[in-house]
Design brief:
Blueprint (H helix, E strand, L loop, with lengths): L2 E8 L2 E8 L5 E5 L5 E9 L2 E4 L7 H6 L6 E3 L5 E3 L2 E4 L2 E4 L9 E3 L9 E7 L3 E13 L2 E14 L4 E9 L5 E3 L2 E3 L1 E2 L10 E3 L2 E7 L5 E6 L6 E2 L6 E6 L5 E8 L4 E8 L7 E6 L6 E6 L5 H4 L4 E3 L4 E10 L1
Length: 315
C-alpha cells in the first residue's frame, strides 16, 4: 500500500501528513491551528511541485493575519463593521480585521479542530477534522463544521466541507478556502490564469459589494502587469467550474475545480499580492457580505446540513 498518514512536529505544532510514497504527493494539515493546510505537493512528470505559499515558521503561521490557506466559516471575507441582520434580528460580530473596521474570515480559523477519522486505502488516504461553534459572540447558533482532506492515487487533492445546524433555530452559513498558490520558483508575471466567469462583483472603497458588472477579459490572460482583487460569479453550466493557473515554461497547469449549483461554490475571489509572489484563488459558497445581502447565503434549518467539494490537480 503506497499511502500512509503520520504525525510530525512543526515547532510546537503537531502536523498530520497524508503521503503517497509512490509519487511523493503529500498534504500537510495542522488540526490544532484551524485545520489549516500548510503544504500541498503534487507531481507532474518528473517534477514535484510545492503549490501553497504559507508562512515559513511555526510562529509566523500562528501570527498570520492574512489567512494563508485557512478555512473560513461561517462567513468569508468582510462583514462591514461586523454588523448584519438575519431574519429580522440584528447581530454584531467582533471587528477582527487589521485596522478594526470589519469582521473578517469567520470563527473557526486558528481554533483547535478535533480529529474525527484517519483512513488509508489502496487508492486514497483521508483525514477528517471538525469544530463546533456554540453560541459565539455575534453568532448565537450551534453549528458543527467538518472538513475532509483526501489525496487520491491519480494525484487529485480533495477538500470537502460539511456544516450541520445542531441548534433549534435557522442559521446563516458561508464557507470559503483561502489558499495562496505558487508554481515552482517561477514569477507570477510568467503565468496565465483562466477564470470561468462572465460577471464580477463591484466593490466600494471598503471592499464591500455594491453590484455586479460584465467581466469581458479574454481568457486565459497573462498575469504580467495585471492586478486582481475581485470576486467573480461562476459560470455554472455544469456541476463544476474550473479555474486554471498556467505555466507554459514549465508545461504545467494547476486546476482548481469547485462544485457549483444550489448551495455550492458559486463564487470565486482572485487576488494578486503586491509582492507578486503568488496568486490567491479562493472558492466561496456565497458573495462577500452575504450575511447582509443574502447573495448565495445558505440558510440551514435545524438538523439540516450543507456540503461542497474543491478538487486540486496538475495537468
Amino acid at each position: 500500500m503506497s499511502f500512509e498518514i503520520f504525525k510530525q512536529q512543526f515547532g510546537d505544532l503537531t502536523e498530520y501528513v497524508i503521503h503517497d510514497t509512490s509519487t511523493e504527493n503529500r498534504c500537510v494539515v495542522i488540526p490544532e491551528l484551524g485545520g489549516v493546510v500548510r503544504q500541498l505537493s503534487l507531481r507532474k512528470g518528473l517534477t514535484l511541485f510545492s503549490l501553497l505559499k504559507t508562512p515559513p515558521t511555526p510562529n509566523a503561521l500562528v501570527a498570520d493575519t492574512k489567512s494563508a490557506s485557512e478555512l473560513l466559516f461561517p462567513f468569508a471575507s468582510r462583514i462591514p463593521e461586523g454588523k448584519y441582520k438575519f431574519l429580522g434580528k440584528e447581530y454584531e460580530l467582533e471587528k477582527n480585521e487589521d485596522g478594526g473596521l470589519n469582521a473578517i474570515h469567520g470563527l473557526v480559523r486558528k481554533n483547535h479542530f478535533h480529529i474525527d477519522e484517519q483512513s488509508v486505502h489502496e487508492d486514497h488516504a483521508a483525514i477528517q477534522l471538525s469544530y463546533s461553534i456554540d453560541n459565539a459572540k455575534g453568532y448565537p447558533f450551534q453549528v458543527h463544521f467538518s472538513v475532509r482532506y483526501t489525496l487520491h492515487v491519480d494525484g487529485r487533492f480533495e477538500l470537502k466541507y460539511e456544516a450541520k445546524n445542531n441548534g433549534q433555530a435557522p442559521c446563516p452559513t458561508m464557507f470559503g478556502w483561502h489558499p495562496y498558490w505558487v508554481l515552482g520558483n517561477e514569477d507570477v508575471e510568467a503565468w496565465k490564469i483562466n477564470i470561468p466567469s462572465k460577471r464580477l462583483v463591484t466593490f466600494n472603497e471598503n471592499l464591500i459589494p455594491i453590484g455586479t458588472e460584465p467581466f469581458t477579459m479574454e481568457m486565459p490572460t497573462l498575469l504580467h502587469r495585471k492586478e486582481f482583487d475581485n470576486c467573480f460569479i461562476m459560470d455554472a453550466a455544469g456541476p463544476h467550474a474550473v479555474t486554471e493557473l498556467i505555466s507554459k515554461n514549465q508545461d504545467v497547469t494547476l486546476r482548481i475545480q469547485q462544485e457549483t449549483g444550489e448551495g455550492k461554490f458559486n463564487y470565486l475571489v482572485v487576488y494578486t499580492r503586491p509582492q507578486r509572489d503568488c496568486v490567491a484563488i479562493e472558492p466561496l459558497t456565497a458573495n462577500v457580505d452575504s450575511f447582509n445581502t443574502g447573495d448565495g447565503l445558505n440558510i440551514l434549518a435545524p438538523g439540516h446540513s450543507v456540503d461542497g467539494t474543491v478538487t486540486v490537480s496538475l495537468v
